[in-house]
């Protein structure tokens, strides 16, 4: 190679030796590279060189794994979710509905269904379990399943069809854990939750699913009589955590490990997925306390059989009830029981109730919710109603439903 400037020309050299030297160097380097792995594997290289070769091979392998689709990642399985499950799962038990059947003159106990329940309290040698009313409905006996192999006797203290809640009592020696009650008031849509229960019975006992709060303050109509008309409206939490048959009565838990809902129902349809519901714990808490103490809920009672005006044929609106044309909703009194508040207030068959205190009453559901949620036994309530086409008013003193 020559150097140039304004005053000098490049010097000429003999280049005949250059090409063979370069070829020799290249061939030597290739031979060394090919020999290094063999020498390293045979431990014939100095330690430092072998370590460097191994390190380089590891880097190359990591880069290859990163670029490929089969990258392997090792992590420690110790998360908040697993900790919560460890702290709560043993408070969730199976609830077995048992029916007595008579065969050939002998009475046999048959398992009629399995749901879930949550141990929420231990006191004076008893453990108290909350579950859904429909889990223990029409049961002759109830047992608590602590595992697939172990079931213990239990007693139903009380239940309520409208709120779909029931309380069961068993011996406290069988309670391994007690769930901590949280609050559902400040739940946020999108907040992570965990559902724990026994889908499809004890075969899958203690199953855990994870999801989020999909909606708050959902109102779901309930038809208890099977006539296609809503008898009640349940206020529930909506979640996409999987809730399946057998999960009923199980726990809906927040990431603090607190019980925030009692899993209750789901909508099943080919067009729907991830639509489960739970009773908010703030609604359930006072009902649980009443059931635990009295075995029933104390609700206001009038003493009438009723149905919604919209369930009556239009012909009877004018010809039987003699209603004005502008009356389009209300509650028709079908029957008045003797010696009840309604009888004492002067209500009669075919009266059409349209208002209680300052609240308009358009159907049976609204009247029932007024009695159960907005009044107490002993309250005096002003009722407006139509009789023979005339708007009238009376005052009724409610009593406790027995």
UniProtKB/TrEMBL annotation:
Keywords: Hydrolase, Protease, Serine protease. GO terms for molecular function: serine-type endopeptidase activity. Residues 300-389 form the PDZ domain. GO terms for biological process: proteolysis. Pfam families: PDZ_2, Trypsin_2. Transmembrane segments: none annotated. The keyword Hydrolase applies. Gene3D superfamilies: 2.30.42.10, 2.40.10.120. This is Serine protease Do. It comes from Aquisalibacillus elongatus.
């Amino acid at each position: 190679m020559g150097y140039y400037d304004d005053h000098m020309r490049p010097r000429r050299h003999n280049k005949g030796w250059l090409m063979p030297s370069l070829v020799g160097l290249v061939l030597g380097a290739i031979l060394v590279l090919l020999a290094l792995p063999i020498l390293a594997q045979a431990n014939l290289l100095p330690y430092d060189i072998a370590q460097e070769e191994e390190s380089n091979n590891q880097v190359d392998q990591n880069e290859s794994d990163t670029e490929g689709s089969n990258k392997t990642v090792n992590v420690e399985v110790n998360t908040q979710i697993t900790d919560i499950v460890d702290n709560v799962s043993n408070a969730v038990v199976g609830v077995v509905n048992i029916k007595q059947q008579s065969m050939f003159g002998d009475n046999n106990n048959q398992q009629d269904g399995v749901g879930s329940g949550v141990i929420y309290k231990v006191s004076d040698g008893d453990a108290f379990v909350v579950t859904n009313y429909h889990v223990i409905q029409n049961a002759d006996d109830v047992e608590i399943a602590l595992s697939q192999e172990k079931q213990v006797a239990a007693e139903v203290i009380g239940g309520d069809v409208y709120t779909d809640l029931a309380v069961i009592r068993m011996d406290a020696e069988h309670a391994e854990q007690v769930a901590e009650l949280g609050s559902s008031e400040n739940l946020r849509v999108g907040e992570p939750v965990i559902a724990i229960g026994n889908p499809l019975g004890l075969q899958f006992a203690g199953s855990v699913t994870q999801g989020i709060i999909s909606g708050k303050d959902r109102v779901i109509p309930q038809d208890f009589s099977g006539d296609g008309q809503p008898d009640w409206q349940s206020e529930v939490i909506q979640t996409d955590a999987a809730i399946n048959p057998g999960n009923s009565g199980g726990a809906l838990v927040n990431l603090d490990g607190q019980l925030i809902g009692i899993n209750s129902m789901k909508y099943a349809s080919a067009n729907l997925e991830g639509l489960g519901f739970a009773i908010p714990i703030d609604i359930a808490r006072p009902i649980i306390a009443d059931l635990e103490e009295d075995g029933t809920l104390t609700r206001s009672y009038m003493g009438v059989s009723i149905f919604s005006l919209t369930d009556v044929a239009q012909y009877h609106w004018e010809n039987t009830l003699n209603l004005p044309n502008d009356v389009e909703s209300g509650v028709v009194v079908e029957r008045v029981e003797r010696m009840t508040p309604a009888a004492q207030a002067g209500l009669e068959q075919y009266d059409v109730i349209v208002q209680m205190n300052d609240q308009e009453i358009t159907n049976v559901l609204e009247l029932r919710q007024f009695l159960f949620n907005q009044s107490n036994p002993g309250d005096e309530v002003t009722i407006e109603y139509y009789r023979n086409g005339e708007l009238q008013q009376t005052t009724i003193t409610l009593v406790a439903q027995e």
